[in-house]
Design goal:
The protein has 6 helices and no strands. It has a domain of 85 residues. It is mainly alpha-helical.
Length: 134
């Protein structure tokens, strides 16, 4: 049941990204172009996601356990350290240069365009080279 739930959530996320236009790098680059023709669309998408998450996260955590797991898996580490800052910077630079973040890139693989597949290959190589978490 967990796999079916993950698949449905993934498809719903992909549908939302596609409907919001977030699979088009021009939307991301337009958002980052604050000195030119700025496109605030990404801001509205992010505000919607943060708003829904902020409202629902505390409500979900009132449960004794998740629906499909034994316990909630909440990160214990709260410190902002160098690894976090470097990782965030690399993510941001990659996002700004390519116009893709991992979610929209995975959704866009269905287009079979070479630049998207090149990005995807680089992303998976990077994930493979990075440290493994618990």
């Amino acid at each position: 049941m967990k796999h079916v739930s993950a698949l449905v959530c993934g498809w719903l996320f992909a549908l939302g990204l596609g409907m919001a236009g977030m699979t088009r790098p021009s939307k991301i680059v337009g958002f980052l172009d604050v000195a030119g023709s700025w496109d605030p669309t990404l801001l509205f998408v992010m505000a919607g996601a943060v708003g829904v998450g902020s409202l629902l996260f505390p409500w979900v955590l009132k449960r004794h356990q998740p629906v499909l797991e034994d316990r909630f898996q909440i990160p214990e580490k709260r410190a902002i350290d160098g690894r976090l800052l470097v990782g965030a910077a690399l993510f941001g630079v990659g996002w700004g240069l390519s116009g893709y973040c991992p979610g929209p890139a995975l959704v866009s693989l269905i287009s079979f365009k070479v630049p998207i597949w090149t990005f995807g290959l680089g992303m998976f190589i990077g994930l493979g080279l990075g440290p493994k978490s618990d």
